[in-house]
Amino acid sequence: MIAIGGAIGTGLFLGAGSRLHNAGPALAVVYAVAGVFAFVVVRAMGELVMYRPSSGSFVSYSREFLGEKAAYFAGWMYFLNWATSGIADVTAVAKYTQFFWPDMQQWIPALIALFVILAVNLVSVKLFGELEFWFAAVKVLALVGFMIFGIVLLLTRHPVDGHGTGPSLVFDHGGLFPAGVLPALLILQGVVFAYAGIEMVGVTAGETSNPRKVIPKAVNSVAWRIGIFYIGSVLLLVMLLPWTSYRSGESPFVTVLSKLGMPAAGGIMDLIVLTAALSSVNSGLYSTGRILRSLSMAGSAPRFTARMSRRGVPYGGVLLTAGVYALGVVLNLVMPGEAFEIALEFSAVGIISMWSMIVICHLALHRKAKRGELTRPSYRLPGAPYTNYVTLGFLVLVLGMSYFNGEAGRILIYGLPGIAALLVAGWFLVRGRVRRIAAERGAPAETPGIAGLETTG
C-alpha cells in the first residue's frame, strides 16, 4: 500500500489541472514517457534492494559502490527533495483546508498538520505504516471511484457542461498536441515531480519483514499503477471535458464534478486531495529520518540525527526535517501566495539528483558483477547498462528544460551553483569526522567498498 500511495499524490490530484491547461491531452503522452523512466529507476532500486536490503536505502548503496562523497551527496540531495516538497505539501494542506474554512489564515492549518504528522512519526514505525496504509487506501478508492464514475458517463454519453463526451472531444479540440510539442516538453519537470515517492519502496525495505519476497511484487506493480492511475485518468479527463476547461490551482477531478453540478462531490474530492498532501508530509518525515541516520552514522550529518528511540524511531532526523517543514509554515505566513511554487521548483533538483544516484549505483553494481566481484540477484533491471544511460540522459533533459519553464525555473537554474557551493562547504566541514569513522571500520573514506550501516536480513 505504501508503494501504491507513493505513486499517487498532489502531483496527480492537483498538478494535473495546470498541466492539462498548458499542454492538453499531450499530458497522457508525457506521463507515459516519464513513466517508463520512472519504472527503470524503481526497478534499478529493486535490484539493489534484492542485492542487500537496507533501511539506509540508496545512501548506503552510494557508500558501498561509489564512496563516502557520493553517499554524502545522495543523502543531502534526498533531504533537499523531501524538505522542499514537504514545504510544498504543508502549503497544499493549508490551501485545501481553506476550502472548508476560507477565513482561516493559511499558516494555522499548516502548523496543525505538521504537529499531527510529527507526533505520528515519533511514536513508532508501526503507527506510521498504519496511517500511510489508510492514506493510500483513501487515495486509491477515490481515484478508482472517480474513474468508474467517468467510464459510466462515457458509456451513457451523458453530457458534461453542455459538451458531448468521448474521444471526439480530443480530436475536435486540436488532437493530442493542441498547443504543440514545446508545451509538452515544458511540463516534464512537473510530471517527474508527480512520480516522486515511488522510491519509498526501497526506503522501507530495511523495515519490511520479508523484503526479498515483498519488494519485487511492489516494484513490478509500478508499471500498471502508472498505466491506470496516471495515463488512464488523464485520457478519461480529456474525454469528459475539453482540455481548455481545466485550470491551474484546481484539481481536474473537482472541475469535472463541479461542471456536473455536484459541488458537494467537489468538496469531498478536495478532502481527498488534502489526504494526499498529508500522506506526502508523512512519507517525507519517515524517509528523511532514516536517510539522515545513515548519514550521521558515517559522519556526514549532525550526531543527534543518529539518535534512536526505544521503539526504533530515528527521532533526531525526524525532528530536523520537521524543523525545515516549520520554515514552510513561516513561508505561508509571510508569502502565502508564492510558498507552494517556490518549494516545488527546488524539490525538482533533489528528485532528479536522487533518481540519478539510484541509476548510477545500479550501474556500479552491474559493472562489479561483470568483473566477477559480486553476483547480481535474479531480480534484475532489464536492458542494463543501456537503460541506465538513456535514463540519465532523460533526467539531464528534464533539468535543462527547467530554464524555459518561466521565471521560477530560471531561478532554480541560477540557484544550482549556490546549492553546489553549500554541498562542497558541508563536505569540508564533515570530512574529518567521516575519515575518522571510516578508519575505525578499517576502510578509507574515499574508497568505495564500505558496507551499508543499517543492513538487515
Automatic annotation (TrEMBL):
It comes from the Bacteria. This is Amino acid permease. Belongs to the amino acid-polyamine-organocation (APC) superfamily. Amino acid transporter (AAT) (TC 2.A.3.1) family. It comes from Amycolatopsis cynarae. Gene3D superfamilies: Amino acid/polyamine transporter I (1.20.1740.10). Keywords: Amino-acid transport, Cell membrane, Membrane, Transmembrane, Transmembrane helix, Transport. Residues 1-402 form the Amino acid permease/ SLC12A domain. It is found in: Cell membrane.
